[in-house]
């Protein structure tokens, strides 16, 4: 065997193996492309789309949260204004009620004074009438002793009236 035949035989073996490896590699590449590359690419595309959707959703949620925060801030401001208004109304009502209570108390006090004045006048009139009766009795007793005779009831009344008229003048 010469060097050439040996080289040719070894080249032929290597060339045959190389072609075989190329055919097997090509078949494997076609199988990988058909069975692995397509599903992997599809999976990567789905993942890419999911990430884009998640980012869009996150941005949308952030905007919604910002809008809700602004609405809550406005609602809080409105509720503070309403609370201030309610307090103002309550103070005004309390002042009005206080004024009404004081006015009612003053009216009641005036009414009590009028009743007391009327009762005092009545008591004075009753006292004067009682005094007239006592004065009449005393006058009659004195007159009986002085005159030494009994007067009739009509005479007693006339004497008392004359005596009282004399006291008032």
Computed over alpha carbons, the radius of gyration is 64 Å
- The percent of residues in helical segments reads over 70%
Strand portion: under 5%
Mean pLDDT, to the nearest integer, reads: 82
What's the helix-strand series?
HH
Low-confidence stretches: none
Write down the domain tally.
1
Total number of helical segments?
2
Distance between the termini: 186 Å
Secondary structure class reads mainly alpha
Which term fits the overall shape? rod-shaped
In total, how many beta strands? 0
What about the largest sheet? none
Transmembrane segments: 20-40
Membrane topology: Single-pass membrane protein
GO molecular function: proton-transporting ATP synthase activity, rotational mechanism; proton-transporting ATPase activity, rotational mechanism
InterPro entries: ATP_synth_b/b'su_bac/chlpt, ATP_synth_F0_bsu_bac, ATP_synthase_B_chain
How is this structure best summarized?
It contains two helices and no strands.
Describe the protein's architecture and organization.
This protein has 169 residues and is an all-alpha fold. The protein has one domain. The protein has helices at 3-147, 153-168. The longest helix is centred in the middle third of the chain and has 145 residues, at 3-147. It is rod-shaped and about 190 Å long.
């Amino acid at each position: 065997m010469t060097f050439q035949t040996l080289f040719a035989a070894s080249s032929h073996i290597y060339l045959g193996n190389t072609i075989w490896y190329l055919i097997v590699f090509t078949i494997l590449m076609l199988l990988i492309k058909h069975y692995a590359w397509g599903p992997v690419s599809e999976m990567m595309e789905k993942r890419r789309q999911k990430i884009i959707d998640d980012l869009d959703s996150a941005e949308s949620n952030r905007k919604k949260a910002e809008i809700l925060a602004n609405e809550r801030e406005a609602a809080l401001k409105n509720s503070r204004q309403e609370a201030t208004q309610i307090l103002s109304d309550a103070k005004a009502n309390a002042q009005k009620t206080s004024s009404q209570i004081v006015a009612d108390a003053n009216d009641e006090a005036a009414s009590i004074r009028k009743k007391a004045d009327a009762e005092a006048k009545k008591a004075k009139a009753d006292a004067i009438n009682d005094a007239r009766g006592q004065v009449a009795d005393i006058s009659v007793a004195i007159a009986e002793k002085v005159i030494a005779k009994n007067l009739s009831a009509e005479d007693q009344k006339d004497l008392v009236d004359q005596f009282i008229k004399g006291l008032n003048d």
